[in-house]
């Protein structure tokens, strides 16, 4: 039994889609979330910069006495996961492999689309992860760099979001994919717009549920579950505007967020 919280971080608000699934699957666990909104998006930055940011994020969360951590950012997972797991000796979960596994399970015609940030798509990490599971699957990738700022701005279902989605996604639809991996945790916020463009015949894969299941399995197998008699605590931190995080973050999470604290992440 371990009553310490689980730490979760993302470049901004997108990781709250993962946090939400974790709350639903194991409501008894305490959670600490850090959104690096002040330096978002990570997806347009170099691997070296993303790795530097990731290590700072990890060090901050370790300062919160966490028992394990979720890198709820596809770009950080793609660029930094191996380096982080070599440097820190505690359970760390990333979002790429769970998403790849879900895509392999979902596809029927073995044509899978992957959308993500420039850094995630450029790394080829999803292609490698999917082909490791099934080398016969055809993969079509597209970077969608404007999706993150649209999500962070709260423009999820308006005409601008739809026009941007059409520009990015129509080429993938024309390839005949039947499964589309949302390779960024911000993208599920735009799910209705993405689904409208892709059509009902294309299954959208959001890795959040698969990640939550994996976290639950790790806590159970390592005797790290929280005492059910102790009330869970949720804490939220950001490197930018507290007010904006509370407002948009509440919409991402589907419930009101209170008492967000601002962090000077450059100290870590």
Provide tags for this entry.
268 residues, alpha/beta, Rossmann fold, 6-stranded parallel sheet, 4-stranded parallel sheet, 11 helices, 10 strands
Polypeptide structure, described:
It is a single chain. By secondary structure, this protein is an alpha/beta fold. The chain has 2 domains: 6-94 and 209-267, Rossmann fold, CATH 3.40.50; 96-207, Rossmann fold, CATH 3.40.50. Helix content is 46%, strand content 16%. It is built from 11 helices and 10 strands. The protein has helices spanning 16-25, 47-62, 74-87, 96-106, 118-123, 125-133, 147-153, 159-174, 191-198, 208-221, 242-253; strands at 6-10, 31-35, 68-71, 92-93, 111-116, 138-143, 179-182, 203-205, 234-238, 261-262. The strands form 2 sheets. The chain has a 6-stranded parallel beta sheet, with helices on both faces. Helix 9 links the parallel strand 7 and strand 8 (203-205). Helix 4 (96-106) crosses helix 6 (125-133). The longest helix has 16 residues, at 47-62. The protein is globular, with a radius of gyration of 18 Å. It starts with 5 loop residues before the first strand and ends in a 6-residue tail after the last strand. The mean pLDDT is 94.
């Amino acid at each position: 039994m371990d009553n310490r919280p689980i730490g979760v971080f993302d470049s901004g608000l997108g990781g709250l889609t993962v946090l939400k699934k974790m709350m639903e699957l194991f409501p008894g666990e305490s959670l600490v979330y850090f959104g690096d909104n002040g330096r978002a998006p990570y997806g347009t930055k170099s691997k070296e910069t993303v790795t530097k940011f990731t290590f700072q994020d990890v060090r901050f969360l370790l300062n919160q006495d966490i028992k394990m951590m979720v890198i709820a950012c596809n770009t950080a997972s793609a660029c930094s996961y191996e380096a982080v797991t070599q440097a820190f000796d505690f359970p760390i979960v990333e979002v790429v492999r769970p998403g790849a596994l879900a895509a392999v399970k979902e596809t029927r015609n073995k044509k899978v689309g992957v959308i993500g940030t420039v850094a995630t798509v450029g790394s080829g990490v999803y292609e490698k992860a999917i082909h490791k599971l099934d080398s016969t699957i055809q993969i079509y990738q597209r970077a969608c760099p404007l999706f993150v700022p649209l999500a962070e701005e709260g423009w999820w279902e308006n005409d601008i979001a739809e026009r941007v989605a059409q520009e990015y996604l129509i080429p993938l639809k024309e390839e005949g994919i039947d499964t589309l991996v949302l390779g960024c945790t911000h993208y599920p916020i735009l799910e209705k717009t993405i689904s409208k463009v892709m059509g009902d015949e294309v299954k959208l894969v959001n890795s959040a549920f698969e990640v939550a299941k994996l976290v639950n399995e790790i806590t159970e197998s390592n005797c790290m579950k929280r005492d059910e008699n102790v009330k869970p605590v949720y804490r939220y931190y950001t490197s930018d505007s507290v007010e904006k995080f509370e407002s948009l973050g509440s919409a991402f999470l589907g419930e009101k967020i209170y008492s967000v604290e601002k962090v000077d992440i450059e100290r870590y």
